[in-house]
Design brief:
212 residues, alpha+beta, 5-stranded antiparallel sheet, 4 helices, 5 strands, 58% helix, 18% strand, elongated
C-alpha cells in the first residue's frame, strides 16, 4: 500500500477544514430559511384565519338554531383538544436556542404538559424594549394566538379556561431585563414549533441590535 506524502496530508487537512466550515455555514443558512419560512407561514395563517373565522361563525349560527346546549359544545372541543394534547406532547422536552453566527447557546425552551418556559442564558441580558420582542413576539405571535383562542370561545369551541396565556418575568436587579417567559395552554406541537422558531429569530435579532 502506497503511503501519502506530507503535502498530501496537508492538503487533505485543509480540504477537511474547508468542508467542515462549509457544512456549518450551510446548516446555519438552512436554519435561517426554516425560521423565515415559519414566520411567513405564521403571517399567512393569521391572514387566512379571519376569512375562515367568518365562515365558522355563520355555520355556528345555524348550529345554535338547533338549540344545542352551549356547555356541551365547549366540552366536546375541550375533550378533542385534550386528546391531541395528551397524544402529542412529551412529558418534558428541551430545545436549545443558538446564535446563528457562531452557534453559541443563548437560551433554552422547555416544554411540558403544564406549559412552555423560555429561559435566556444567564450571561445574556435581553432588554425587553429591544425590537422586535414586544412588537413581533408578544404583540403579533403570542397575542395572535390568544385572539384565535378568544374567537373559539365566542364560537363555543373552546372553554375560557383553555385560552393561551403568557407571563414575562424580569430579573430582580434589572426590571427591564428578561429572566423567563412562561406560556400556558399552548395546546399542540404546531404552536410549540411556531413559538420556538419565532423566539429563536427574535432573540438573534435582539442580539444583533444590542451589539451595534
Amino acid at each position: 500500500m502506497l503511503g501519502y506524502s506530507d503535502d498530501d496530508i496537508k492538503n487533505a487537512a485543509e480540504i477537511r477544514e474547508w468542508l467542515t466550515k462549509l457544512i456549518s455555514e450551510k446548516q446555519e443558512e438552512i436554519e435561517r430559511i426554516k425560521i423565515t419560512l415559519s414566520l411567513i407561514d405564521s403571517v399567512l395563517k393569521q391572514g387566512s384565519f379571519k376569512t375562515a373565522a367568518n365562515l365558522t361563525i355563520n355555520k355556528q349560527s345555524s348550529v345554535n338554531e338547533k338549540s344545542i346546549p352551549e356547555d356541551k359544545e365547549i366540552k366536546k372541543g375541550s375533550q378533542d383538544s385534550q386528546k391531541i394534547y395528551d397524544e402529542q406532547i412529551p412529558s418534558i422536552e428541551t430545545r436549545q436556542i443558538k446564535r446563528m453566527k457562531d452557534n453559541t447557546l443563548i437560551a433554552i425552551l422547555e416544554v411540558s404538559k403544564d406549559g412552555i418556559e423560555i429561559i435566556p442564558n444567564e450571561s445574556i441580558n435581553f432588554n425587553l424594549d429591544t425590537p422586535p420582542f414586544r412588537s413581533f413576539f408578544l404583540n403579533r405571535i403570542l397575542e395572535g394566538m390568544k385572539n384565535k383562542d378568544l374567537d373559539k370561545v365566542k364560537q363555543n369551541l373552546l372553554s375560557s379556561s383553555d385560552i393561551i396565556s403568557f407571563n414575562i418575568l424580569q430579573k430582580d436587579n434589572n426590571e427591564n431585563t428578561l429572566k423567563k417567559i412562561e406560556i400556558k395552554n399552548y395546546k399542540d406541537k404546531d404552536r410549540i414549533n411556531e413559538i420556538f422558531n419565532t423566539v429563536s429569530w427574535v432573540f438573534n435579532r435582539m442580539l444583533e441590535k444590542s451589539e451595534r
